[in-house]
Every structure is written in C-alpha cells, then in structure tokens.
Write a structure and sequence with these properties.
By secondary structure, the protein is mostly helical. It has 2 domains: 54 residues, no CATH class; 174 residues, Hypothetical protein af1432. It is built from 14 helices and 2 strands, in the order αβααβααααααααααα. The protein has a two-stranded parallel ribbon. α5 crosses α12 and α6 packs across α9. It starts with a helix and ends in a 6-residue tail after the last helix. 30% of the residues are buried. The structure holds fe (ii) ion (2 copies). The site of one fe (ii) ion has 6 residues, from α8 and α9.
Length: 253
C-alpha cells in the first residue's frame, strides 16, 4: 500500500503527464488490479490537495491520443483509434475472395471492431450495438452472434472448433451458458449462415504475410454503412455515445 505521500507524488506527476489536466481512468479500465468497490487512487490525493491547487479534470481530447476530425467517419476510426486492424481487413478480403455479398464483406470487416477499438469482453454484442444504427439489420445480427458461433463446430460447412481457442483458453474450456444459449438460438435463425460466414472467414484471417489496404473496401463501406453527416458520434443515434467514448475514452464526465 503506497503512503499518502507517494500517492500525492503520483498524482502530481500525473498532472505533468496530462498537461495540467488530470486524466483518470474509469472503473472499467482499472477493475481487477484495483478493487472496483474501493475509492479510485486519485481521489485521496485530489481531495487532500488544497482546493485552489487542484488540477482541472480533462473534459476534452486526451493529448496523448491523435486528434479526431470534427466530423469523423468510420474510416477515421480505423485510422486514429482501431488497431491492429489486419485481422479485420483479412477477414473482409477472404469474404470477397469467397464470393460473399457486399453486406457480408462489410460484416467481416467490422466483426471485431469492438476488440479493435473498445472492449474485448462480449465484443460481438458491443460491436453489433455500435454499428446497429448504420447498417442492414442482418449485418449487426451476424456480428452479434459470431462470438457465440465461434465456439461451436458445424460440420455441414466444414467449420471446426478453432485450434487457437485450445491454445488461448485451454483444452478444458467450456463456454458460458449464455454463449451456448445464443448459439442454439442463432443456429435456428434465418440469418444463421450470415453469422456462420463471419466465423468461417474469421478462422483463416490471421496470416502474417498477407497485407490488405482498407482502401479496397471504401466503396463497400460507402454503399452499406450509413455515415451520418454530423460525424459518427455526433449524430444522436442510439449508439452515438459509444463512438464518442472511443474518441475521448477518459473524458471525466
Ligand atoms: Fe470475434
Ligand atoms: Fe475475428
């Protein structure tokens, strides 16, 4: 446990790093290493500093991140916030090679954007919600369910349980009940194959020797992603706030 003095010092150096603004991490970013039910580490030094010496919290752009355009497009997020995007580009490339529809190529291009720019836990669900207002319902549906379908083989299309998952999670890993439930639901849905197509292209999209240019998909994005005029994040859609959080992940409020 750091002494109060140590913590004040940490707090002071944080101010310098943050160019006079105090940039703090939300509970979701620190939960685990830090007990989420305990006070965040900045609180005590902040409140024990005389009020007139306390820094202001960052409410604008994080100076450590590249500045986003005022009216950001999906491509701007790929450029300034998502990474690494090679897997997404390779998935979309395979979908194209395999003769998938433009809608499905877009679904493959966006299937892991939550992992690339926001959060890994339940990334299929987060990613679907993020893009839902801007794409055909089938695209977001497929992205939502690809996460569950990845864990379940389908011999009828030659999809096997991923070898990589044995390595990532262990031979004895058992998916959560809600993942099983959502697989069972998706299995009998009219769009099952759309989500399954994502998993099939997903599986082979980890080739370190293949380079893909996002420019190859600009036309498809233009035709199938409804880019809002005000900029993605400032358009008042049900997920606009999620895009704004990607722009400014540590805005205090
Ligand atoms: Fe995924
Ligand atoms: Fe993936």
């Amino acid at each position: 446990m750091a002494s109060v003095e140590d913590r004040i010092e940490a707090f002071e150096s944080a101010q310098v790093d943050a160019l006079e603004r105090l940039i703090v991490a939300a509970p979701l970013y620190t939960s685990g290493p830090h007990d989420p039910t305990a006070a965040p580490s900045w609180q005590e030094p902040y409140f024990t500093t005389p009020a007139h010496q306390r820094p202001k919290f960052e409410m604008g752009d994080d100076p450590r991140l590249p500045k986003m355009p005022a009216k950001p497009t999906l491509l701007d997020y790929f450029t300034y916030r998502f990474g690494p995007i090679e897997h997404l580009l390779q998935s979309a490339r395979l979908a194209k090679i395999n003769g998938c529809s433009e809608k499905m190529i877009l679904a493959c291009l966006l299937h892991d954007i939550s992992m690339a720019g926001m959060i890994g836990s339940d990334h299929g669900y987060w990613g679907a919600q993020l893009i839902e207002p801007y794409v055909d319902e089938e695209v977001s549906w497929a992205i939502r369910y690809h996460q569950a379908l990845r864990f379940f083989p389908d011999p009828s299309v030659g999809y096997e349980y991923p070898v990589a998952y044995h390595q990532f999670f262990g031979e004895d890993y058992v998916p959560d009940d809600y993942i099983k439930r959502d697989h069972d639901y998706a299995r009998n849905h009219k769009w099952y194959m759309s989500a399954r197509i994502i998993t099939m292209n997903d599986l082979y999209a980890f080739d370190p020797d293949v380079r893909v240019d996002i420019g190859d998909f600009e036309d498809i994005i233009g035709r199938h992603f409804r880019q809002p005029e005000e900029g993605l994040g400032y358009d008042n859609s049900p997920s606009a706030h999620m895009w704004r959080t990607i722009i400014r992940p540590r805005k205090f409020l």
